[in-house]
Structure formats: C-alpha cells, structure tokens
Amino acid sequence: MAQLTNNPWSYQTADIAIATITGATGLTLNADGTVSITTTGALTFNATADSNTAFTVFGATSALYNGFYTRISGASGASAFVMQPNFVIPAGTAQSGGGTIAQVLYRNRVRMEDISWQSTTGSVLVATDTLELRDRNGNIIWNAIVPTGPSSFSQNRGKIYWVSGLVPTVLTHGIVLMTVN
Question: Would you say the pTM of this structure is higher than 0.85?
C-alpha cells in the first residue's frame, strides 16, 4: 500500500494503476475541451493515491494528448472516462489512438532527495526487472533495468530535486522508497 505521508515515501507493484488506451479512437477531443478516453481493459484506481481525479496520458499517437488530466467521469474499474486536460489541445485536433493512461499517486510539486529501488522479503530483484517513474505530465523521472549480473539487490538514484507529481508506471518486483523534503 502506497505510503505518502511520512519519510521515506514508499510504494509497491500493487500501487500502480495503469491501462492501455484503445487503438485509433482511444482519445477523442470533445467540443467542450474535455477528452473522452477509452481503455482496452479496466482501470482500477489506487485508493491510497493523493487523489482519484489526477491522471497522466503518455505515448499517445498524437503527442498533443500527452499530459496531466483531471477525471470528470468514469469510475474505478471502468474502461471509459471523460477527463479535462490541464493544458490546451487545439480545437479540431483529430482523434488519437494508442498510448497509456496512469493514475497520479501524488499530484503536487515535491522535492525528492533520493529514490531507492529495493528487494523485499519474497520479492528479490532479478536480472531484467524494470522500474519506471514519471511526473504528472508523463515525463520520465527514472527508468531502470536490473543488469544481467546484479551485484546488489537495490538501485539508487539521488538528487532528483523538484518534480511535478509522482506516477509509477512499471515496477516488476520490490519496493521503491523516496526521501522527500
């Protein structure tokens, strides 16, 4: 269960809420500036996240759809949502397919001093395990892969400093600890 109240913050694989956006018509700009988003499967929200209204879209076929969104409608476990982008998509922008939508665990700016990806009891990091952290706009904060001959069961990234939100998108094993200031 994500822990975002005391230092260090932590989250595990079960805390990630992510879904693949449906093909050619997965992202549709509505006349009122909102975006209809359809996913290929259910998107179940993380109940411990900072807010169940903050999401990011990244990797969309049309980069104009990538960024930070606020959920207007669509419940946890659904595959259709209406969201308000926190940026402007020009009127008349064609539909976009593909991409990914992920729930933002923490949506405000935060100063990260250190991030550590560690093994846990029953969940040892092994070769090719992956970790990917993004900010609320979908930009990569840290992308790591355990090497084929790991010399330890942890990886560290220091001095990240100010980040606009936290969105874990991939964590195959272990736990991520973040010291925030």
Answer: yes
